[in-house]
Design a protein that fits this description.
alpha+beta, Helicase, Ruva Protein, domain 3, Alpha-Beta Plaits, 10 strands, 3-hydroxy-3-methylglutaryl-coenzyme A Reductase, Chain A, domain 2, globular, four-stranded antiparallel beta sheet
Length: 419
Amino acid sequence: MSDEKSRLSGFHKKDLDERLELVKENSSVDEEQLEKLMGEGLSNDEADRMIENVVGTYELPVGVATNFKVNGEDVLVPMVIEESSVVAAASFAAKLARENGGFQASSTEPVMISQIQVTGLSNAHAAKMKVLEKKEELCELADEQDPVLVEHGGGVEDIRCRVLESRFGPYLVVHLLVNCQDAMGANAVNTMAEAVAPRVEEITGGDVYLRILSNLAEHRLARARAVWKKEEIGEDTVEGVLQAYEFARVDPYRCATHNKGVMNGVTAVVSATGNDTRAVEAGAHSYAASGGGYSPLTTWERTEDGDLAGTIEIPVPVGTIGGATSSHPGAKANLKIMGVEDSQELGEIIASVGLAQNFGALRALASEGIQKGHMKLHAKNVAVQAGVGEESVDEVAQKMVDEGSIRVDRAKEIAEDLE
């Protein structure tokens, strides 16, 4: 295995079999796991055990982003996504970031929030104090619901309370802060909240309705930073990215698309590892709005040397055990390709990919425009959509790129001329 196992030069130019061989040589994935990615995939029986009313499976491409170095370690990053240019943009951004050491990442402990909604209180603030006085008892009761988690160092770390005014009167909202270790933790924290709820009613004299986790995982954050040298990307690109970031910072219409670009990378890795894409996306966008407005998930600054510095901070409620991460063969294979040790490392890689993806999008917007690179990669899809035969797809796509006219009708015309 190469010391620079993610720096696979010309990876995108190789055929599928060659790419698979390189992935096997530069990760700990085995032949059987790779076969799951090569077409065998998720069986109908496996799918039937995952969700209800199964009628089949639905596949998306798995790409591998190269060039990533996170905290000094090379990592190959599987990404599941249908959109052209995402994997290429992330790989190229990571290649440019490598010149200055790659991505430096960190994370908080994997703490999730479970909420208990208490209603019907005449004195909500006094009820809040009563709950906090019984904190130790409530923590013990919650931990009894998952002794295995506690045995592995997890469990309730704290209980916090908030009083909210509503049109039905005041709510007391009790937060259980639960260290979920390497699990995403939804089942664990929901079970704990349900177990604690009756005792909370006794303590407060109120009525409990909702007992469920929050996807605003503000205590389970991953952060990453990187610097792109002006000599590598050009001073015009530095200025262009800063202008694009400022546009997103002051305009929610632009900011929505800015953050969507971040999530292109984030969601692709979350999906590849069998984690809950909806939970991560809900948490990310809620976190972007938690300051009272809607803000970019990334920041971009110019260093004293004139280089471009990017940072990201994002909630990452993801796991490496349990759920689909343990039952989906493709997810298990992708985790093996990444070689992650725990949920925090996975979150740090996800944050790094989100930052790289954002750089790739902003760089394209600030220079040639997003369509040039995107449509070049999209040309094959257009040719297939036009009904072009497999033997002619590459040639038709290249002709459309050369002409700068990537349309279904033009693909049909070119294909007819080739006949």
